[in-house]
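Severity: low
Component: inverse-folding endpoint
Summary: output formatting inconsistent between runs
Steps to reproduce: submit the following structure tokens with default settings.
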């Protein structure tokens, strides 16, 4: 697994939220909603992504184009 981080500043507060795929993808969709709300308010920004050959090939269509489901904010 490769983790790419594009953060240029230090992190003061760390919060980990996970949204696992499951029946109806409720966890992932709920977390995506929370992240979009936090981004709009300026409280979150994408800082990296995880890449692995063992992960299933999966992308999602978002407002800005193609999204990677394995992202860090």
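Observed output (run 2 of 3):
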């Amino acid at each position: 697994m490769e983790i790419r981080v594009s953060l240029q500043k230090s992190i003061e507060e760390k919060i980990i939220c996970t949204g696992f795929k499951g029946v109806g993808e409720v966890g992932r969709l709920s977390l995506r909603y929370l992240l979009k709300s936090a981004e709009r308010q300026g409280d979150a920004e994408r800082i990296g992504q995880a890449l692995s050959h063992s992960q299933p090939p999966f992308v999602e269509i978002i407002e800005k184009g193609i999204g990677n489901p394995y992202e860090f904010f």
